[in-house]
Amino acid sequence: MLLQFNLPIPIPIPCFPTSSLIDMGSFQLSRALLGSRRNWVVRSQASLTRFCSSGVIKGVSDTSSPSVHESPSASASEHAVANASEAILKSRTWNEHQLTADQLQFRSLASDFAENELMPFAAQWDEQKHFPVEVLRKAAGLGFGGLYCGHDVGGSGLSRADGAVIFEALAYADVSTTAYLTIHNMCASLIERYGTEDQRQDFLRELTSMDLLASYCLTEPNSGSDAASLQTTARRQAGSTDYILNGEKAFISGGGAADVYLVMARTGEAGPKGISCFYVDKDSKGLSFGRQEDKLGWRSQPTSSVILDDVRVPERCLIGKEGEGFTIAMSALDGGRINIATCSVGGAQFCVDAAQGYVSTRKQFGKAIIDFQNTQFKLADMLTKVQASRCLVLNAATALDSKAPWASASAAMAKRFATDECYNVANDALQLHGGYGYLKDYAVERYVRDLRVHTILEGTNEIMRVVMARHMIKSQA
Ligand SMILES: Cc1cc2nc3c(=O)[nH]c(=O)nc-3n(C[C@H](O)[C@H](O)[C@H](O)COP(=O)(O)OP(=O)(O)OC[C@H]3O[C@@H](n4cnc5c(N)ncnc54)[C@H](O)[C@@H]3O)c2cc1C
Fold first, then answer.
1. pLDDT tens digits for 217-265?
2. Which residue owns the Cα nearest ligand 1 atom 7?
3. Please, which of 56, 359, 405, 434 could form a disulfide with 370 given CB 3.0 to 4.6 Å?
């Protein structure tokens, strides 16, 4: 079934013109994104492949190379029809008038990548719990592995607002894989901001290229929302500058697959001021992983506990000063929350488009379901929620970029609203598909599953309200 957009009753959903995405016209990748590669023109996947084979864009390899992602397996073939239809959906947005020329180009680049490298395979990765590391490296080849890091360490030097535009376009195709990419970027930006110059130079190049993948380790079995109560310890070894880490981290995205773990551990007193942040190598003696969690969504990325049993970490791997770890962790989460929110926006926008396409062709009672005014109102409400979320995300991103005093509260507000409302939108889209929405033949069920966790992680939405309320009370005092 091909989704139709010649609606019996037109609903004005402005779309990024399909032709411009397929043909791409020719556009210059921005100076910020490409740095020294600025004059290269990307037209299509073929061009990306050509650039790669000439070694210009690292990590974008011949799509015929063997990996799970090149040819759907028999078990995934049942999704082929739905996937083929979805492949024609393109990321849409109502905020193009707010975007800079550069942001429009970033968005085009990300949409093109999402269309070619994520959307055709997302259902299969979800089903097979496949973590598409090679595809992530291709994304890094376009500059998406170190969005907020400096050019000198291979980063793209972009703003939070730029990042939101890119992640929304990627999440439109695959929420789960994009969400991991946001976590990796959160880790890289943490080092960019709080690392010494030596640490930046030592650690960031392999992170921005995604030769090494990173995980963020705050949560523990007995310390979730109350993160400042964490119990993992980091003690100086007598007669040495090394630290010895002991404890367990829970729910770590990328756990077991990532190469680098940014671990918050207690070096001092109880509470937030006794916490420090450490860069821990996967190969460290004493580091091990729990079983891979079997999750409702986010199945294209692994989640596991991380166990530290007398793990020796040299002093040069302390990020920031002793006692600054909690501040560092929370400040990283400001950006992380904006990115999780923007992943919700991208996923929900896909659901609106998919639902609109479906109800335009599905007939009951002798007419297309979209001809019922109730359906039109539902679609209008869904799109309003997505757009309101997008506006809050952009507002929070610009607040963070400009270091506004309300940036943390804005990030919490955007995360709370966008992740709640976009989940509701995905659920509504499933409802509009009727019984078919409950089947894996249609992608909306995967979006519902993937979006659900966004209201829980990187601080639950109850904790987002705590953050906002604290800011309100403090600013009134
Ligand atoms: C798939 C997945 C991936 C994750 N990835 C990571 C990761 O990469 N790194 C990492 O460090 N963590 C990660 N997490 C952990 C996540 O951040 C925590 O699950 C989350 O912060 C909540 O902690 P908790 O699960 O312990 O819930 P709890 O803190 O036990 O909360 C349970 C319930 O009580 C509510 N509650 C708690 N305190 C209050 C309060 N003061 N007021 C009102 N309500 C309250 C909560 O909102 C929640 O509804 C991940 C979690 C999941 C599910």
1. 999 999 999 999 999 999 998 899 999 999 999 999 999 999 999 999 9
2. 252
3. 359
Report pLDDT digits (tens) over 145-154: 999 999 999 9
d(CA 438, CA 174): 18
| Residues ≥6 apart with Cβ < 8 Å to 82 | 123, 441, 442, 443
CATH number, domain containing residue 121: 1.10.540.10
Q: Phi and psi at residue 251, in whole multiples of 5°?
A: 60, 35
* pLDDT tens sequence across 311-370: 999 999 999 999 999 999 999 999 999 999 999 999 999 999 999 999 999 999 999 999
Indicate whether 167 and 224 sit together in one domain. no
Task: Encode pLDDT of 430-454 as tens digits.
Answer: 999 999 999 999 999 999 999 999 9
User: If you average pLDDT over residues 269-287, what whole number do you get?
Assistant: 98
Does 53 fall in a domain?
yes
Q: Give me 98's structure tokens.
A: 């707010």
Q: Is 224 in the pocket of ligand 1 (CB under 6 A)?
A: yes
- Global pTM reads 0.86
In a domain, 5, yes or no: no
Distances (CA, A) of 397 to 183, 335, 409, 410, 414: 16, 8, 11, 8, 9
Q: Which of 86, 248, 445, 458 is catalytic?
A: 458
Cβ(155)–Cβ(185) under 8 Å? no
Residues 249, 145, single domain; the answer is no
**Domains of the chain: total:** 3
Show the domain range for 246.
214-323
CB 148 within 8 A of CB 161: no
Cα(298) to centroid(ligand 1), Å = 16
